[in-house]
Amino acid sequence: MTMRINGVFTTAATTWLLCILGCGPNGRDLSDEKWLALHESVQKERNEMQGERAEFARQRDLLEADRQKWDARARTEPVVAAAISAASLVLCCSLPLILVAVMLWPRPPEPAEEAISELLIEDLVHQADRTSDDPKRIEGPQDQPRLKSPHS
Question: Residue 72: which domain range?
Answer without folding.
Answer: 32-131
